[in-house]
Specification:
The chain folds into 2 domains: about 5-245, Glutamine Phosphoribosylpyrophosphate, subunit 1, domain 1 (4-Layer Sandwich); about 260-595, Rossmann fold. It is about 35% helix and about 20% strand. The protein has an 8-stranded antiparallel β-sheet, with helices on one face. Strands 5-6-7-8-12-13 form a 6-stranded antiparallel β-sheet, covered by helices on one side. Strands 18-17-19-20-21 form a 5-stranded parallel β-sheet, sandwiched between helices. β24 (about 525), α18 (about 535-545) and β25 form a beta-alpha-beta unit.
């Protein structure tokens, strides 16, 4: 979603801001803009389309400046136009602002400001805020010149209902930038003689060595070599400065064509990182110190609730299967966006987990807050060190999958699933899972990276199959048990990047409705692995074949699908506990190659954002 970068320092601001925006492109956006201060003047350039379009425009009229703000917009209020792109400037021309979030009461603000003579040129909510800042600037004449800018922003923000991450500059204060957050991530980067602002560490484009994570309700005043932070009620804050681990944040394409391709093939490494140091061979269990919860407390848990969105929600569904199977603890899975509002009754001894790759998804963050507010211990599984979800949870486990840039989540998903398996193993071994069963799971987990490596070798075959099916308009994905969530994940991956309508179902549900879709025009990808459910799955496949539906089987028992499936993707025969991960690899590759065949923008699919920071 929207990306913010801001710069104040002794270097030329424009190239740094553009580079920052380039690094934030992966978040998903539809327009980009930049404002620079130079010699008491505000220079604004904004364009719909890609950052490259903005960069070309900026290059036509270079402005030498040491302070500026920039933005990639993902449209919420108002269409994708140059006018609606950020930065927005107050109608008196004295303030420029970039904003991520939604100002819910902007209509009231706007009406108030129109009465006072302010004018508006966009359809955005943001323009109301920048004008309100101008209004408060003029109505706080008791403030000294030094804190007048900060106070105007602070006063304006006190009237905002909704969410924001903002950066503001003014030609009246050429050596100061104001940044604030509530509900939308905002980070302050510290470099040598420079301060940066960004919605994401990547936006610092490698310049900052340290980072301050602004908390909700905090406002920062930045100069080249200083940073002061107060709360919205004007209380000074003692903030923590963290070092940035650029190795963890590294996001180069390497030799790959797309980030998604790179990230699919990085999974053996990502899984290795997620597992490292988290297995006890001696005790055949997992070592999960990050949970911050004692074994005796864990033994009191009667129920676990998992909350998430999108792909992470599918990881929760796999967690349900794994934890119920190995730890025998009842698990519920909720969409985070529903949990927050539906006030579900929870048992006293419920433990809550949220899963979020980005650690910034607003629905998941609010579900976490709601759960904590009700007094439940709330833990997080996230890939983003220092993210809001990581900071606000009572404990949790980092995925260490490395930065995921492709909008379609791949390596983050499989590393979330392996962490859920580690949790299932740990909880199981605290209860009734025997040493021998634990041992089998431990061995399975240890073999995962090499088994994923082996499965990835099917890429050329899957590419061929993907080309054959790329031009269909509808798809069904069917799986049973722990592969039902993977069927959902397959359908989500395909629709996200190929824009092909696809649905995931438990295979047994097929006859209760989805079979109506089956025809020569609607292929089905079906998971069919060895075990008691295999004969049933073969029957499902036969029923599809009888209706002339094309079938792709993903299976560890290829012989069982001979003469039934049109195409077969063989996967290794593995322990049940890791099967969902192995089964995921073919559907990721399939979706990727279909999208490539269709010529789609794989890493930045239309309408989607990497971190969904507005509700
Ligand atoms: O960052 P999160 O894991 O919280 O994101 C949740 C979803 O928005 C995300 O998984 C989304 O569904 C992806 N685009 C899936 O590929």
């Amino acid at each position: 979603m929207c990306g913010i970068t801001g710069y104040i320092g002794c270097r030329d601001a424009a190239p740094i801001l553009i580079e920052g925006l380039r690094k934030l492109e992966y978040r998903g956006y539809d327009s980009a803009g930049l404002a620079l201060l130079s010699k008491g003047r505000l220079n604004v350039c904004k364009k719909k389309g890609r950052v490259a379009v903005l960069a070309d425009e900026v290059a036509k009229k270079p402005v030498s400046s040491h302070i500026g703000i920039s933005h990639t917009r993902w449209a919420t209020h108002g269409g994708v136009t140059d006018e609606n792109a950020h930065p927005h400037v107050s109608s008196d021309g004295r303030f420029a602002l970039v904003h991520n979030g939604i100002i819910e009461n902007f209509e009231q603000m706007k009406n108030f400001l129109i009465e006072k003579g302010y004018t508006f040129s966009s359809q955005t909510d943001t323009e109301a805020l920048v004008n309100l800042i101008a209004y408060h600037y003029d109505h706080r004449t008791d403030d000294t010149m030094e804190n007048r800018f900060m106070e105007a922003v602070r006063k304006a923000l006190m009237h905002v209902e909704g969410t924001y991450g903002i950066a503001v500059i003014s030609p009246l204060h050429e050596v100061q930038m104001i940044a604030a957050r509530k509900g939308s991530p905002l980070l302050i980067g510290i470099g040598k003689d420079e301060r940066l602002v960004s919605s994401d560490v990547l936006g610092f484009a490698g310049r900052a060595t340290n980072v301050i994570y602004l908390e909700d309700g905090q406002i920062a005043s930045l100069t080249t070599d200083n940073c002061d932070i107060v709360t919205i009620s004007n209380k000074p804050i003692d903030f923590v400065v963290n070092e940035i681990d650029w190795e963890l944040e590294n996001a180069d394409l390497g030799g790959a064509t797309h980030y998604m391709e790179k990230e699919i093939f990085e999974q053996p490494k990502a899984l290795e990182n997620a597992i490292r140091g988290r297995i006890s061979d001696d005790e055949s269990t997992a070592v999960l110190s990050g949970l911050n919860i004692s074994p005796s407390e864990l033994r009191q848990i009667d129920r676990i609730l998992f909350c998430s969105c999108g792909t992470a929600w599918h990881a929760c569904l796999v967690a349900e299967y794994l934890i119920e199977k190995y730890a025998r603890i009842p698990v519920e899975v909720e969409y985070a966006s529903e949990f927050r509002y539906r006030n579900a009754p929870l048992d006293k001894n419920t433990l809550v987990f949220v899963i979020s790759q980005s650690g910034e998804t607003i629905d998941t963050l609010e579900a976490l807050r709601e759960s904590k507010r009700k007094g439940y211990k709330t833990l997080a599984i996230t890939n983003s060190v220092g993210s809001t979800i990581a900071r606000e949870s009572d404990g949790g486990l980092y995925q260490y999958a490395g930065k995921e840039v492709g909008v379609a989540s791949t390596k983050a998903f499989t590393s979330q699933v392996v962490i859920c398996l580690l949790i299932a193993l740990y909880l199981g071994r605290l209860r009734d899972l025997s040493y021998a069963e634990g041992r089998e799971i431990v061995e399975a987990i240890k073999s995962l990276p090499s088994l994923v490596e082996e499965t990835l070798k099917q890429a050329p075959l899957i590419e061929k199959i993907a080309k054959k099916y790329a031009h269909y308009k509808d798809f069904l994905f069917l799986g049973r048990l722990s592969e039902y969530p993977i069927a959902n994940e397959g359908a989500l991956k395909l629709k996200e990047i190929s824009y092909i309508h696809s649905e995931g179902y438990p295979a047994g549900e097929m006859k209760h409705g989805p079979i109506a879709l089956v025809s020569p025009e609607c292929p089905t990808l079906i998971f069919g692995n060895s075990g008691s459910a295999l004969p049933k799955i073969i029957s499902n496949a036969q029923e599809i074949k009888a209706r002339k539906g094309p079938i792709i089987a993903v299976t560890d028992s290829p012989e069982a699908f001979e003469g039934v499936a049109d195409d077969i993707i063989a996967i290794p025969h593995v322990h049940k506990s890791i099967r969902p991960i192995i089964s995921t690899i073919p559907i990721q590759l399939f979706a990727y190659y279909v999208a490539v065949e269709l010529g789609n923008d794989v890493d930045k699919p239309r309408n989607l954002a990497k971190a969904v920071t507005v509700e």
